[in-house]
């Protein structure tokens, strides 16, 4: 489970230092909950936007090619 | 000791390709500024509305064909050399393909730019798609053919290196970067064949006057046989960066090497046979093929959606290794102060938006709402214009020290550059999308028509025009920042003391995946079969009633 | 091959998304009658003679039946015929079939903000049928680059109530 501790922000966000590794995480330890959350949100956004664009923006703007 | 020390010959070739790419970027980018100000009627003092089309041709060709191709050959030469651990087999051969590409580019660029020089006798205001019967000077077409053939030789160079490596490593899995190069180029050979046929068999003889009339549908169909796959020719190198380097930049490791291979196989198979989705509004293409294109194009969403998961999870791995936590807060732990990381990450975010507008374009009937409107450039400035271009710019910050041995100069400008690109593109692209929904056409010098009032979904035309103009100006400034950083580093950068060019291995490596993924012949065979299914009958029909018939007269541009 | 269960879930969701999009498009195509040009296969014509022989020699509106009219329209550098020099007048709420071709270069036909959209290709006949729901004026824009005055190429469709539609200017078959 992702930890509830506040984001232990490492150094370097402003200074551009990229050696901010705190620890190693192995393949077995790594559970991409964050990715599931982000992609899940994207999935819902895509469905909603597509339906809106198709049924509202497109379908209601007659005339259309009917044949 | 970094790349330039281990592989000096390859480094020279990579650098030469990058220089051409950046010169094209500078000129093409400047043209984009002119267009953004002209079509919105903010400033029309650079060129006349007739010359606008010469500028538009230059913008499309220099950015979408020259900047892209040369950056890709440079990037891929770097990737092949470092993973095969071999210098190019023959410097003479390598410089030959570069020279061929360069000569071709010079010819085509001369024809285009000649259109802006009164009395030059040269002109090619045919736009990047050069549909006949609009006709450019023969130099335009001959140059394009040389650029494409030169790129074929580049691939042959890398296959040569790969064969030598394979002889020394008979049982090894193909290293991921070389794998991605090979699959990109297999796809490129397959799709650029259509363009080569169009240009060499039809357009060059026609532009030289050996035949007078030409059937517009056939070259247009051959162009789009090529023209959809070419966007993957641009996108796959961005994926190359996101899969093989971005995890390291994020402080982590690639989540899955095998899935990256699967994704590239998908693109080899599906990129070319879906070209008809650019012809949904065309007469002369029967509904069956439009339906085939609809289904296959929506299926090709899958490898990109898979890429989203693998790349984001690799970034998440880096973020958590850096101490990040939570469902979304982990993103704050990423290195947002690192220019190379920032550019790639922002490029990926914009790609998510561009992917959506692409899904709309792919969807057959709703495409009728947006086809050839401003929605289309709104879409592709997010995809090739950001996902690809911004990734290329960002990764240059990371590559340049390896290629020159010099430390990156003007780091503050380098960090500001991707953020400014993101802001400029947000403004410009959202306005173009909304203008497109109202029906504002693309590729038009003056989209203001007397007596035609656009019905805008929300907002006003004036506000959208200003967003395009201001966004385009910010993009131009961002591009200048990039060129200043690169130029400054190249010419006056201090020697780099500690170049971090190490990429850690993937979390899940190729050793855990079936060997069939590396079976080049199998996947190329399937790709060819799908192309034959998609294109044989329609092309045969177009050819059988006469190669140049029904023929239209040339319209010199 | 190690595929994390979350990624398997995501692949499943992606396939669902793709299926949903295909379903929506096919539903729109068949049930809502949202189509594209060229559903009926057009024959080819000769751009060199299209202005003097065949139906395009007399561009304009023809009556097929009380509820169905057809328009033979040319797109050429840089006008629509009919449509540019005088508005093309059509009855509302009636089936209208457009046949379009070009004697010179490729053009486009777009009624902005609607689903009427077609490429016009010399040698090909673009065919599509529509129904204008209300009486009003529609613009026509050429949205396929056709030369130096491309940005000046526009037209107008004036849709009138069927009772007001003047049949005296129709082209006889």
From TrEMBL, chain A:
Query: Which ranges does the record mark as transmembrane?
Result: 33-56
Its taxonomic path starts at: Bacteria, Pseudomonadati, Rhodothermota, Rhodothermia, Rhodothermales
For this UniProt record, the keywords arranged alphabetically read as follows: Membrane, Transmembrane, Transmembrane helix
Q: What is this protein called?
A: Uncharacterized protein
Which stretches does the entry tag as region Disordered? 1-21
UniProtKB/TrEMBL annotation, chain B:
User: EC number(s) in its UniProt entry?
Assistant: 1.9.3.1
Asked if the record carries the keyword Membrane, the reply is: yes
Query: What does the UniProt keyword field contain?
Result: Electron transport, Membrane, Oxidoreductase, Respiratory chain, Transmembrane, Transmembrane helix, Transport
Q: Does the keyword Cell membrane apply?
A: no
Kindly list the residue ranges recorded as spanning the membrane: 16-36, 56-76, 97-119, 139-160, 181-204, 224-246, 258-276, 291-312, 340-360, 380-400, 468-491, 522-540
According to its UniProt record, this protein's enzyme class is oxidoreductase
Q: Which residues does the UniProt record annotate as the domain Cytochrome oxidase subunit I profile?
A: 18-486
What are the GO cellular component annotations?
A: membrane
Superkingdom as given in the UniProt entry: Bacteria
InterPro entries attached to this UniProt entry: Ba3-like_Oxidase_I, Cyt_c_oxase-like_su1_dom, Cyt_c_oxase-like_su1_sf, Cyt_C_Oxase_1
GO terms for MF: cytochrome-c oxidase activity; heme binding; oxidoreductase activity
GO BP terms: aerobic respiration
Protein name as it appears in the record: Cytochrome c oxidase subunit I
What is the protein's species of origin?
Salinibacter ruber (strain DSM 13855 / M31)
TrEMBL record, chain C:
**Cytoplasm keyword on record:** no
* Residue ranges occupied by any Cytochrome oxidase subunit II copper A binding domain in the UniProt entry: 66-171
- Kindly list the GO molecular function terms attached to this UniProt entry: copper ion binding; cytochrome-c oxidase activity; oxidoreductase activity
Q: Which CDD domains match?
A: ba3_CcO_II_C
List locations, semicolon-separated.
Cell envelope
Main localization of the protein described in the UniProt heading: other
Matching entries from PROSITE patterns are given as: COX2, COX2_CUA
Q: Where are the transmembrane segments?
A: 9-32
Cite a single Pfam family from the UniProt record.
Answer: COX2
* Gene3D superfamilies reported in the protein's UniProt record: Cupredoxins - blue copper proteins
* Any one annotated GO CC term: membrane
**What InterPro entries has UniProt attached to this entry?**
Ba3_CcO_II_C (IPR034214), CcO_II-like_C (IPR002429), Copper_CuA (IPR001505), Cupredoxin (IPR008972), NosZ/Cyto_c_oxidase_sub2 (IPR051403)
UniProt keyword annotations, A-Z: Copper, Membrane, Metal-binding, Oxidoreductase, Transmembrane, Transmembrane helix
Q: Give the enzyme class.
A: oxidoreductase
Q: What is the designated name of this protein?
A: Cytochrome c oxidase subunit II
């Amino acid at each position: 489970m992702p930890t509830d501790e506040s984001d232990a922000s490492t150094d370097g966000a402003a200074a551009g230092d990229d050696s901010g590794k705190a620890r190693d995480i192995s393949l077995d330890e790594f559970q991409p909950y964050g990715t599931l959350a982000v992609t899940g949100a994207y999935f819902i956004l895509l469905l909603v936007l597509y339906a809106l664009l198709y049924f509202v923006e497109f379908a209601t703007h007659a005339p259309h090619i009917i044949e | 000791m970094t790349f330039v020390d281990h592989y000096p010959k390859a480094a020279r070739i990579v650098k030469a390709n990058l220089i051409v790419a950046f010169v094209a970027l500078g000129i093409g980018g400047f043209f984009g500024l002119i267009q953004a100000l002209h079509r919105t009627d903010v400033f029309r003092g650079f060129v006349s509305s007739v010359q606008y089309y010469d500028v538009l041709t230059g913008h499309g060709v220099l950015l979408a064909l020259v900047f892209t191709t040369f950056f890709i050959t440079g990037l891929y030469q770097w990737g092949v050399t470092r993973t095969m651990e071999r210098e190019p087999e023959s410097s003479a051969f390598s410089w030959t393909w570069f020279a061929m590409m360069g000569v071709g580019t010079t010819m085509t660029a001369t024809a285009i730019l000649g259109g802006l020089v009164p009395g030059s006798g040269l002109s090619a205001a045919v736009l990047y798609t050069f549909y006949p019967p609009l006709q450019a000077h023969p130099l335009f077409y001959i140059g394009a053919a040389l650029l494409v053939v030169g790129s074929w030789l580049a691939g042959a160079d890398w296959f040569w290196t790969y064969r030598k490596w394979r002889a020394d490593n008979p049982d090894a899995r193909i290293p991921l970067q070389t794998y991605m190069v090979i699959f990109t180029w297999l796809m490129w050979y397959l799709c650029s064949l259509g363009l080569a046929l169009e240009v060499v068999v039809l357009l060059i003889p026609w532009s030289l006057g050996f035949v007078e009339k030409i059937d517009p549908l056939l070259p247009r169909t051959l162009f789009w046989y090529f023209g959809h796959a070419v966007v993957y020719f641009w996108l796959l190198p961005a994926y190359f960066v996101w899969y093989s380097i971005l995890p390291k930049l994020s402080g982590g490791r690639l989540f899955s090497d095998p899935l990256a291979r699967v994704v590239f196989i998908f693109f080899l198979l599906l990129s070319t046979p879906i070209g008809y989705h650019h012809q949904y509004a065309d007469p002369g293409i029967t509904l069956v093929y439009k339906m085939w294109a609809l289904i296959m194009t929506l299926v090709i969403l899958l490898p990109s959606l898979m890429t989203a998961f693998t790349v984001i999870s690799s970034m998440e791995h880096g973020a958590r290794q850096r101490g990040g936590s939570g469902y979304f807060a982990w993103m704050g732990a990423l290195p947002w102060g690192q220019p190379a990381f920032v550019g790639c990450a922002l490029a990926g975010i914009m790609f998510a938006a561009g992917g959506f507008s692409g899904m709309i374009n792919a969807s057959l009937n709703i495409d009728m709402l947006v086809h050839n409107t401003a929605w289309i450039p709104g879409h592709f400035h997010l995809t090739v214009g950001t996902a690809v271009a911004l990734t290329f710019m960002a990764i240059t910050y990371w590559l340049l020290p390896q290629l020159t041995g010099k430390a990156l100069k003007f780091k503050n400008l380098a960090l500001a550059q991707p953020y400014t690109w993101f802001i400029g593109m947000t403004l410009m692209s959202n306005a173009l999308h909304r203008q497109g929904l109202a029906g504002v056409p693309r590729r038009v010098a003056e989209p203001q028509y007397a007596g035609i009032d656009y019905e805008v979904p929300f907002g006003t035309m004036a506000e959208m025009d200003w967003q395009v103009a201001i966004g385009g100006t910010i993009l131009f400034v961002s591009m200048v920042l990039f060129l200043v950083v690169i130029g400054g580093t190249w010419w006056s950068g201090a020697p780099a003391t500690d170049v971090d060019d190490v990429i850690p291995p993937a979390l899940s490596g190729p050793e855990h995946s079936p060997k069939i993924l590396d079976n080049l012949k199998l996947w190329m065979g399937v790709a060819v079969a799908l192309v034959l299914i998609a294109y044989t009958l329609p092309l045969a029909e177009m050819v059988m009633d006469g190669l140049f018939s029904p023929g239209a007269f040339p319209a010199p541009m | 091959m190690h595929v994390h269960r979350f990624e398997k879930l995501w692949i499943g969701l992606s396939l669902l998304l793709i299926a949903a999009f295909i379903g929506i498009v096919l539903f729109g195509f068949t049930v809502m009658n949202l189509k594209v040009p060229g559903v009926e296969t057009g024959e080819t014509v000769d751009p060199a003679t299209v202005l003097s022989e065949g139906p395009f020699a007399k561009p304009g509106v023809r009556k097929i039946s009380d509820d169905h009219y057809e328009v033979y329209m040319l797109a050429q550098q840089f006008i629509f015929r009919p449509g540019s020099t005088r508005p093309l007048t059509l009855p509302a709420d009636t089936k209208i079939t457009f046949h379009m071709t070009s004697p010179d270069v490729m053009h486009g036909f777009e009624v902005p903000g609607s689903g009427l959209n077609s490429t016009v290709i010399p040698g090909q006949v673009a065919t599509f049928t529509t129904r204008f729901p209300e009486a009003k004026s529609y613009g026509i824009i050429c949205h396929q680059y056709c030369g130096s005055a491309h940005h000046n190429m526009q037209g107008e469709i004036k849709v009138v109530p069927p009772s007001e539609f003047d049949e005296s200017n129709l082209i006889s078959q």
